[in-house]
Amino acid sequence: MRYLFSLIGAFLLAGSAVSAQSDIRLFQSGAEKFEALLADMQQAQHHIHCEYFIFADDSIAHRMLDVMKSKAGEGVEVRLVVDGYYDVKRGYNYAGRLDQLRREGIDIHIYKPYVFPYVHRVLRDHRKIVVVDGRIGYTGGFNVADYNIKGKDMYGGYIDTHVRLEGPEVEDLQFLFAEHLEKSGGKPFAGDAYYPYTSVLSEGLDDRQSSVRIVERGRSSRQKKAEMRREVIAFIDSAEVSLHIQSPYLLPTPGVRRALRRALSRGVKIEVLFSQVGDTPLFDTGNVFYSHQLQKRGARVWLYQGAFQHSKVLTADGRRSLVGSANLDYRALRWNEEVAAVIDDREATLWLDSAFAGSVRQSVGMTPQYYYNLPLKTRIKGAMTDFFLSWCL
């Protein structure tokens, strides 16, 4: 009955769902995600920690900052880490406002400021993390910008996937935030108020097992640099019946390509979905070229219409899912700092698969005829994009 409710709810709510088996809530609506996040922030008693790749200078960012200032005035600790590249290059310039925001109670820091000689352009903090009181955590694909809610003229609406968590796995998000806070010049923090589940477990009062694991792509060690890539490959290798893939940029590393070929060769039904018109025309051609290679091996490819599909989601066999910030491309798996939640929860995965099915209904299937009817120069551009951005970057 819970599964039937989740299946029906996926289509009726079209934005979020709550798993009955664990403290997992999923969003594919930016408006619903931010309303839930702001409500949680307003209930904070001890701290609010935010880390974002893009934190725009627009209405949704101002709403978040207003809540942060208000809670800081109540004595809540408020810390914010913003990636330095987008702080400067995309007009979201907080560099000139740091002192003011700090006076207003927000302990804000810029991660790796984008300065001459600009060698860190591809070494960015692409994570999206929020932790409230060490017990509630958010991660996924939504940045803080109005287009996450309103869309953009160039492609209409905007769809992404985010997850709200409650449980021990939130402490892993907390640890990742603390790491980048210190790298950005912030002061370290520690104690039971920040890691409440650790303190409870150490007292032997709770043996709760989480259905969620947090994985990262970081640069603190060789192991961390490869963790996300290994996790994605292992996830694909675990699929026995079905594998659903959503990524706005589908230009994966060689190891991921081999895993997808292995899955197809053992009979896994692979379906891939991305926007027919994305935010980067060059990547659009690369997506089509590579997905055509998968199609020739038996995969089904769907081109989503009417909105930009920015979700980074994998689901396997209707029982496991991976939701996070990492696109299925070389930059995310080799260069950026990323985070994802691996969710072993059938109801959460059912909701994601149901949302995938809903997206398919708003898509057109990519056929061989579709590909070969593209202009020759587009197909050549796609092949070159696939080669240089997946193998030579």
Tell me about this structure.
The protein is of the alpha/beta class and 393 residues long. The protein contains 15 helices and 18 strands. The protein has an 8-stranded mixed beta sheet with strand order 1-2-9-7-6-3-4-5, with helices on both faces.
Tell me about the largest β-sheet: 8 strands, mixed
User: So, CATH architecture of the largest domain?
Assistant: 2-Layer Sandwich
Strand content: 15-25%
The first-to-last residue Cα distance is 48 Å
- Write down the CATH topology of the largest domain: Endonuclease, Chain A
Count of β-strands: 18
Spans with pLDDT under 50 lasting ≥5 residues? 1-14
Please give the CATH class of the largest domain. Answer: Alpha Beta
Number of domains: 2
Number of helices: 15
What is the topology, as strand order, of the major beta sheet? 1-2-9-7-6-3-4-5
Q: How much helix, percentage-wise, in residues?
A: 40-55%
The CATH H-level superfamily of the largest domain is: Endonuclease Chain A
Whole-number average pLDDT? 89
